[in-house]
Write a structure and sequence with these properties.
Layout (H helix, E strand, L loop, with lengths): L5 E3 L1 H30 L8 H25 L1 E3 L15 E6 L2 E8 L10 E3 L3 H6 L7 E6 L2 E10 L1
Parallel strand pairs: 1-2, 4-5
Antiparallel strand pairs: 3-4, 3-7, 6-7
């Protein structure tokens, strides 16, 4: 059985809840009105407005289902740091790799943004850090080859 838990920060959970409300209360009714107006124009086979609105409705309804599934399986992570010194979800890890220091925050897949230093617990790098502590060396296969990361701190 596959684990469907979606790890989210409270901020991301609130953002998704707001998007869901906006889709259901505003966006979908607006698109439905556009579809109705396009239907009144007559021949639907060559009605670009109708087809565009139908495509947007399909996307919006699909997004609603996606958000509902995420929220149904959501577990809020707290950035309490790692009291026991081990890397866990929500922890920020400072590492040394190739002579450079880098900082990563371990987040759920929905919030991953590698350019902002947020890496998913499901990524090879994030997964390799989980359960490690300050001073540990972690080897990870990345696109550039095998890299060794030394954990300098866990907060």
């Amino acid at each position: 059985m596959t684990d469907t838990t979606q790890y989210l920060s409270q901020e991301k959970k609130s953002e998704l809840e707001q998007e869901l409300v906006q889709l259901k209360s505003t966006k979908i009714p607006e698109i439905a009105q556009r579809i109705d107006e396009a239907k009144q124009m007559g021949d639907l086979s060559e009605n670009a407005e109708y087809h565009d609105a139908r495509d947007q409705m399909a996307w919006a309804q699909s997004r609603v289902l996606e958000i509902e599934a995420i929220l149904l399986n959501a577990k809020v992570i707290t950035a309490t740091g790692s009291n026991d010194g081990f890397v866990d979800l929500g922890a920020t890890v400072v590492v040394k790799v190739n002579g450079k220091e880098k900082e990563y925050t371990i987040v759920g897949a929905q919030e991953a943004d590698p350019l902002a230093g947020k890496i998913s617990n499901e990524s090879p790098l994030g997964g390799a850090f989980l359960g490690k502590k300050k001073g540990d060396k972690v080897e990870v296969k990345v696109p550039a080859g095998m890299q060794e990361y030394k954990i300098l701190s866990v907060k």
